[in-house]
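Same chain as my last thread, 155 residues:
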Amino acid sequence: MRLLSTPSRLYRVLALAEVVTWTLLLAGMFLKYVLQSTELLVRIGGGLHGFTFIAYIAVTVLVAVDQQWKLKDLLLGIGSAVIPYLTVPFERSALRRGLLGDRWRLREEQPRSAPQKVVGLALRHPIPAALIVIVGVAVVFSVLLSLGPPTEWFA
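reply #2:
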């Protein structure tokens, strides 16, 4: 469970995963739309990116609640996933500004609000919480996949 050992470690891994999956998706789009080649990499990269995007949002909320981010920082964190390659600069900025701690605060402190209670429970029981989050992300991902590509949602 080294991945979950600190908020900064988990957030860095997800920020990097976002960059990798953005790269796969953009490379696939280049092959499909510019070179008029295959759409296989769009399907693979798009699927991986969609799943990672949802996971990054979930982790952003988890870290924001645990580390007591301001709403502005939470929205910037979520927004950084929308623009390609912005998650890593945001993660570096958050680390410099002290938003990413070296310990999970709600593992030790008494939660006050409902979101803090949920996050505190998840941090004290990481395996069941991780399974619930993975299933939740998979359900959201499946629903979005059934709706088709985002470009077709409003057409």
